[in-house]
Amino acid sequence: MSLLAVLVTVPGTVWAVLVAQSQLNQADEAAVKEERAQASRVSGWARQDAQGKWLFHVMNRSPDPIARVFLSFAPLIPDAKVSPVWAVMVASVPPCTEMTIKQGQLMYNLDDAALRGLPGNAFALPMASPPKGEKGWRYLDPGYRYWKLGDVGFTDRNGVDWVRKDGGRLERGPGISVVGHGDPGRVFGALTYRTVEECGEGT
Fold first, then answer.
1. Contact predicate 177/87, CB 8 Å
2. In the chain, helix, strand, coil percent, each to 5?
3. Whole-number Å distance between alpha carbons of 196 and 47
4. How far apart are CA 141 and CA 146, in angstroms?
């Protein structure tokens, strides 16, 4: 092969390699984007209503349900001897739906030794009402006006686990942690579900 042929061929080969690498990088980016497509449309947050009561939200703006939804929240009580922590598991949140847990649904029971013996990260399903015959259930003092939302975990349509850290940064994996430490509280009554208008893969 002549020197001229080499000089002509080498730049073309280098260009082809660079193009192939660029296409590979784009394919990898597209795969990552596709993997996160549903998870990126799931969010969680806490807020107060007009009466100052706290609401805890999980919103699924995707066209598919999310499963095994975990979230935790706790009041910020300085120097408190008793500090309940709520760690909740919901079987699923439907497509295009916002789920809400209201402060008025939160109770804890310091008289139940078995319940008090549970770790603060003992996730529990919401219940219709406290078990019959069990006494000692109480609401948190309404004077506690500051709450913190912990991690929000869920499983997407492909069976992949995701976590919104403190309701914000999205990470892959089931490493959900509970906000704070304390006696486990429980959620009673039906949760609230609202249809989300801005929903779908294009939103």
1. no
2. 20, 35, 40
3. 18
4. 12
**Which one-letter DSSP state was computed for residue 116?**
H
Contact 89, 70 (CB under 8 A): yes
The percentage of the chain sitting over the pLDDT mark of 70, rounded to a whole number, equals: 76
Helix (H, G, I), strand (E, B) or coil at 28: helix
Tens of pLDDT, residue by residue over 129-179, are 988 877 889 887 766 678 889 999 999 999 999 999 887 889 998 878 888
- DSSP-H helix ranges across 53-189: 113-116
Angle at CA 119, nearest 5°, toward 113 and 121? 135
Confidence check: pLDDT of 31 > 50:
no
Q: What does the longest C-alpha to C-alpha distance in the chain come to?
A: 96
- Tell me the C-alpha distance between 132 and 77, whole Å: 30
- Give the residue from 171, 169, 84, 76 showing the smallest Cα distance to 122: 84
Q: CA 109, CA 84: separation in Å to the nearest integer?
A: 9
Residue pair 75/48 in contact (Cβ under 8 Å)? The answer is no
